[in-house]
Amino acid sequence: MHCALYDAGRCRSCQWIEQPVSDQLTAKMNDLHKLLAGIAVKEWRAPVSGPEQAFRNKAKMVVSGSVEKPLLGMLHRNGNPEDLTDCPLYPASFQAAFAVLKPFIARAGLTPYNVARKRGELKYLLLTESQLDGGLMLRFVLRSESKLEQLRTALPWLQQRLAQLKVISANIQPVHMAIMEGEQEIPLTEQRALEEQFNGVPLYIRPQSFFQTNPAVAASLYAAARDWVRGLPVKHMWDLFCGVGGFGLHCATADMKLTGIEIAPEAIASARQSAEKLGLTDIHFQALDSTQFATVQQDIPDLVLVNPPRRGIGQALCYYLNGVAPKYIIYSSCNAQSMARDISSLSGYRVERVQLFDMFPHTAHYEVLTLLVRE
């Protein structure tokens, strides 16, 4: 992939961009083999990759510059701004949206936040696109509510020029720190969730819920988990750290009992909406801490699927799983280092299958799906 921003030294986020994708995959597989070197793996599945460019469904843009000439992109460590609206990781539809959003910022009087001076109102623009119909979700991250009415008044102009905008909200982040969003989310449209679909499964993206940024590879990841689960004698399943329910909703069948646990209420609202649309009746999503939920249960499932944040599932949950010994564990990880540590702490299990998913091309990051079977 060619990137003028990289060539000019303006952005080096894609540190592996000069390597062919095949070499990137080889390096990632070598890293995964090294991390799991002390663990016997029965089957290594071929890695899965997707498009090299225009694959991202989300843009997180720092707003800088002036209200008349805003820049959308990032700040370098020295505080200098960099406009990244031409980043080749974004689809062409994003570039068209950015071209409208820049004059809208001036029209709405949303002064970009100046980090050094601690002045201004608009900190970030967060844009998400649905692959289902091209619908967009737009979030304005503001320092306060002082410009909220100005924003509301100007929105019809924006909606007229970007008809694909379906969900708009304002997030209030008053803290002078490198925190992307605050707790308060103010809806600015009647529609509150952006509908997406992977492998025929409806999924809903809400402003404060996590969603994968590489739809093509994410769809392959969910499909792989579905195929693995349906090849096992599973009638009862837990989906821990379930997010919007992508794994559980793919794996669930009409005769399976499934419980999905996620600490974020917004994500659980999305998962319940999907389950209702699919007509699944014996599927239960709850907004709870996954470890706290699991460690007080008596009705142990056949399979536990975990999809934790980068820190992994942790010693407390590993200890609990060792004690209750579900027949199967599927571990989806965005950090193979913490996954390897957790697997080493899960005694009495063999690693049946491992597969790498290149969710983040041109970087060292990747995702892994692992099937563990009780011996």
From TrEMBL:
Active-site residues, record numbering mapped to chain: C334, C334 (nucleophile)
InterPro entries to which the protein is assigned, alphabetical: 23SrRNA_MeTrfase_RlmC, MeTrfase_TrmA_AS, MeTrfase_TrmA_CS, SAM-dependent_MTases_sf, U5_MeTrfase_fam
Keywords: 4Fe-4S, Iron, Iron-sulfur, Metal-binding, Methyltransferase, rRNA processing, S-adenosyl-L-methionine, Transferase
Binding-site residues, [4Fe-4S] cluster: C3, C11, C14, C87
Top-rank taxon: Bacteria
Protein EC: 2.1.1.189
Pfam families (alphabetical): tRNA_U5-meth_tr (PF05958)
Residues noted as binding S-adenosyl-L-methionine in the record, renumbered to the chain: Q212, F241, E262, N307
PROSITE patterns referenced in this protein's UniProt entry, alphabetically: SAM_MT_RNA_M5U, TRMA_1, TRMA_2
Catalytic activity, as annotated: uridine(747) in 23S rRNA + S-adenosyl-L-methionine = 5-methyluridine(747) in 23S rRNA + S-adenosyl-L-homocysteine + H(+)
Signal peptide: none
UniProt keyword annotation of Metal-binding present: yes
GO molecular function, one term: 4 iron, 4 sulfur cluster binding
Alphabetical GO biological process terms: rRNA base methylation
HAMAP family, per the entry: 23SrRNA_methyltr_RlmC (MF_01012)
Family, similarity comment: Belongs to the class I-like SAM-binding methyltransferase superfamily. RNA M5U methyltransferase family. RlmC subfamily.
Summary of the function given for this chain in its UniProt record: Catalyzes the formation of 5-methyl-uridine at position 747 (m5U747) in 23S rRNA.
Name by which UniProt lists this protein: 23S rRNA (uracil(747)-C(5))-methyltransferase RlmC
